[in-house]
From TrEMBL:
Protein name per Swiss-Prot or TrEMBL: Transglutaminase-like domain-containing protein
Organism: Lactuca sativa
Family membership: Belongs to the transglutaminase-like superfamily. PNGase family.
One term of GO molecular function: metal ion binding
Ranges where the Transglutaminase-like domain occurs: 242-297
Record region (Disordered): 739-790
Amino acid sequence: MVARKFLIHHQDSNFDVDYDTEDGFEVFKFQLFSLTAVPPDEQKILGGDDDRVISDDSDLIAVSDKLRLVSIKDENPQLGSEIVKSDEELARVLQAEEEALMFQQFGVSQDSRQFEQRIRPYVDQVLLYEDTRRQEAARKTVPVEKLEEKALVALAKEGNFKPSKSELDHAFLLQLLFWFKQTFKWVNSPPCENCGNETINQGMGAPNSSETAYGASRVELYRCRSCSRITRFPRYNDPIKLLETKKGRCGEWANCFSLYCRSFGYETRLILDFTDHVWTECYSMVLGRWMHLDPCEGIYDTPLLYEKGWNKKLNYTIAISRDGVYDVTKRYTRKWHEVLSRRNLITESALPYVLKNITRECRKNMKISISTLDERDQNEAKELEKNLHSQENDTISLPGRLSGDKEWRILRSELGSTSLSSSSCPIRKITDDHVSKIYDAFSPFISRLVELSSKHKAIEGVHFVRGVLIDLKKSPFKRRRVVIDSNEFFIRELLPSFEMMLDALSLKSNVEENGRKVEICLRDDPVRTSIALPVVFHAIDDVVFNIKKCDEFIKSSVSWPLVKVNRICCGSVLASGEELPFGIATSAFDGTRVSKWEEPNGAKGCWLIYKAKDAEVYELCSYELMSANDAPERDPRDWVIEGSDDGGASWRILDEQTAQMFDNRFQRKAYKVKLQGFFANVFRLRFLAVRDGRTNSRFQIGSIDLFASGNVKCLVQNPYCDFREADPTDYEPLAMKPQVEPEQMKGGMQVQPSEQTKADMQAQPSEQTKADMADVQAQPSEADVQAQPSELKARMDVMKKIVMVVLVLVIGMAVGVGWT
Ligand SMILES: [Zn+2]
C-alpha cells in the first residue's frame, strides 16, 4: 500500500493529492471534496489527453498528472438540487406521457360521478377539523410543552438556538408527528375485550346508536379464539372519538392526525390515495410548500415513499382541505405515464373542472383571501410540474411499508426495502460544545470528591447531584428550579466545585432565606439546559462506573478516562452513509446514549470524516467509542484513525485497532492514540469491519469522542484560540430534515429496519426511567481502558493559553479549502 501523488486541476488551481489506489475511488473523491468543496456525487473527474471521464475502473495512475475536476453544478448552473434528466430521456418520457394521455381518453368513463362520489364524503369530513370543540379536545390530549421543548432541542442541535416562528412551527409539527406515531395504535384484528387473546374476523355487524353517533357506519366483528366472546371494532369517522380510542388503520390515523394538525393552526389536507391509503399534508412556511406527512409510518417529506418504497401503483392522489380539493398525484410519482394509464375514472380534461367546482363551493363562505389561495395553488402546480421530470435522488433508499403486520404487508407486496437511508450525506455541523463543557466540568467536582471522601462517599455525592438534576429535569423546561436545604452535605461541601457544571448546564445557584436554602434555576436560555441535561445523566453514569473501577480513589485517579478534558467539539462531519432521520452522523457526537450513527451499508467498511471548526488544529491524544443501543453484530471491530494537517490532501495513520469487541450495549472503550505529536485539522475514521459482517450489512456506533492533548497550535489570525465557544450564528438555517432528539428514537424506530431492532428498542427503558434508576447500569470494560497519566491541571491551564504559532500550518491550511 503506497500512496502516490496525483495532480488535480480545478477552477484555476492545482491540488496535490496523496492517494493509494487500493483505498478505493470513493476515498479519492472524498479527498478531492475536502480540498475543493465539490461533493463526491457532484464531481466529474476528467483525465488523459482526450479528457475522458474517469471512473473507478479507469487506470488512474496512467493519468496521475493530467486530472481535471469539474463540478456537475458548474457545468449546468441552472440545475437546482434536483438533477434534471438528460434531453433524450426527457423526450422519451414526454412521448410516453402523451401516448398514455391519448389512450386514457378512449378507455375512461365519460361519467365523472363515480370519481366525485369517491371524494365527496371527505369534503364534509375535513370540515370537522374546523370545529373549535374538536380542536380544543385535541389540544388537551397533547403534551404541548414537552413537544415544544423537543422541537427547540432538535433545532438547537442544528445550531439554531433562536428559531423564527416558522422554523419553530415546522419543528413542532414534526414532533407532533413522532408523538402521534407513538400514541396511536395500529389495529389488524383487535385483541379480545374480555380476555385479551387473539381474535378472528367474523364479518360485519350493524352499528349501534353510540357507534353511529361518532360516524361508525361500519362495525367489524371479531371472535375470540379462546373465550369465543365477540369484540366489536367500530370504524369511527368522527376524529373526536379517535382522540379517545387512539387506534385504527390508516383511515383513522390520518383522520385523527389531520385534526391534530388543524388544532395547532397548520393548513392541513387529508390526502386520499385511491389505491387505498390515506395520509396528511401540511403547509410548511419554512419550506414554502406543502409537505407530506404519513402518521402511520412517522415519515415526512418523502412523497416517493409509496411508489418507490412500497411499489404502489398509484392512480389518483387527491388532497382535500377546507379550501378545496386538489389533484396532487404528481407529487407522489416519477412515472406519470404509467400512472396516467391507470387513471380510468374520469378523463384528464374533465378532472380539473370537477375539482374546481368543488373548490369553488368550499371557498364560497371562506374568510381567507381568495387571491392568496390562488397564488398558492399556482405555485404548487408549478412545483409539481417541475419535480415530475426531475431525476430521483438515487442516493436515498426508501423503506417499504412498516404499519400493519408483516403477512398483510407481504400480501400487498408493500414490504419493499427496510429503511429510509442515504448513501450520500450532506456535511453536518455538530453542536456539541455543551458536551465538552460538561466533561470539563467534572474535573473540579471529582477533584473535590477525592479531597473530601472515600470512594463510597464519592459515589454517594454523585448520586446526590444526580437526584438534584433529576428534579430539575422533571420540572417544566421553561421554569426549571429546585430548592435545597443549605445543610445538605452537597451544598456545604460540594457546591463550589459544582459551579462549573451548573454553568455547563446553563444553570445558576442563588442563596435564599438568609442562607438556609439554595435555589438552583435557569441561567438564561432554557433550551441550553434541555439539550445538556440528557448528556449529564449519561456522563454521571460513566463517572460512577469509572469511580467504582478505581482501585483507590486518590489524587492520581483524577485522570483520563475518569476525567475527560479537551474533548474536540463543534466541527463538521461527513459520513459514507446514514440512516434517516434518526441515525445521522452527528448523532454519534451528541453525548447521549440512545442516539447513534447508523450506516446502512457499513458492515464491509465505511468512513466518517471529522473536520475541526475554523481549521483549528489538534493533537489527538485519545478517543472513546461507545457501542450503540442494540444489534451487537453492527459494532465496529477493526478501524483506522487518520489525521490530516492539510485539509484532507494527505493522511497519517494515528491509530489502528483490530478484533475489538464490545461486550455490552452503551459500553465505552477508551484508546490512547499510538502516533502522538501530529497536529491535524481533519480526522478520518475508517471502520473496516463490524463484529458480524456475514449476516448483517449495517454498521452503527453510539458515540465517538475525540480528545486533544493540551498542546495547542493556533493560527495567527485566531490568537485566543477559543476552544469552547460555539457561535450559534455560525450555523446554517434549519435543515429540511431536522435532527431529532434521542427520546424520539423509539418513535423513530418504526422508520427503522428489522422487527428485531424494534423489539430491542422497545425493551429499552425510557431515558427518564434510566435517569431515575437508583443505581447505574454499569457498562463494563476492563482491559481496554488504557489509562493515560495526564496532569489535569496543567492541561486546563494550557487550554487557555496559546502555546505556539506555526507559520507552516498557516500555509498548509491556506491550501486546504474549508467546508462552509
Ligand atoms: Zn377472549
